[in-house]
Amino acid sequence: MATMQPSDETTEPLEAEYPEPEPLWRELLGRRLRWRRLQRGETLAETAGRAGVSPQYLSEVERGIKEPSSEMVAAIAGALGASLLDLTSAIAWELTAAAAPPAPVHRLAPARVRSRATAPATAIGLATGRATGLATTRAATRAAVALAA
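Given the sequence above, the corresponding structure tokens read:
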């Protein structure tokens, strides 16, 4: 009995079926809180002491394991010198960036390159010695020879 194998036409990548999930609010909050704490050069114990929570609880919040109440978020944010507006704005920006499609890549049209033989010689280029291209170099040479003679 022959076995059936899927053709290339019917096989689709799994990424199309299972898109990457959005990051969770508590994970983004935790990352942002940890980032702020580390920017201030503080330990878990120092920040937790000012916020009125245990270092273990703060660690779980930072790792995205615990989802703190708004009162706890406000207390931790205050201990880090941040406001709820600072945190929510930063997290909203991260969510927006994660959900946004990649920016389109704009390609420049290829430049039309003129042949060196057909590049026009300019009076300025001949007079200043800044002539470019084969034709202008030959013209400058002819002009220099004519002046020297």
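DSSP finds eight helices and no strands in the chain. Try to locate this feature in the token string yourself.
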